[in-house]
Amino acid sequence: MLTAQKANCTLRCIKRSVASRSREGILPLYSTLVRPHLESCVQLWSPQHKKDMDLLERVERRATEMIRGLEHFSLEEKLRELGLFSLEKRRLWGDLIAAFQYLKGAYRKGGENIFCRACCDRTRSNGFKLKEGKFRLDIRKNFYTMRVVKHWNRLPREAVEAPSLETFKARLDKALSNLV
Question: How many Å apart are CA 109 and CA 98, to the nearest integer?
Fold first, then answer.
């Protein structure tokens, strides 16, 4: 995959040119130079196959292994220690933010009724449930509109009813720790 190749190339350049293996030296370089390659246009082509996800996560693993002092931690523990979300959570985060923007009216010209609101009068739901479509083909389950619905419906009410995008992002960060 070309995306992983570009990210690996950039990571090798960082490894060769930076003498320090401290968190303060490697983390900003990884965040600004490598991670954008791994996250570019992810809402459009979201990796569906396990081998593609593993390829991208391998780059992330190599980057965290470069940082001194974290050698004996698992990838999840390294990311938590560094204050980063995994690539999977970042993809979900981007999907949910795009859904929030669409549902609040930011993308009305792009397509009408991408999401269908479910009739839900339960008091314990988030109050803004989306309807999941039923399809005969399994390939549709990876489409953006299907991927995001089950996670959107699991969000807490205070996140879904956020008055602004900034508030939604802050509440989403808190909710994501329990979501995936």
Answer: 14
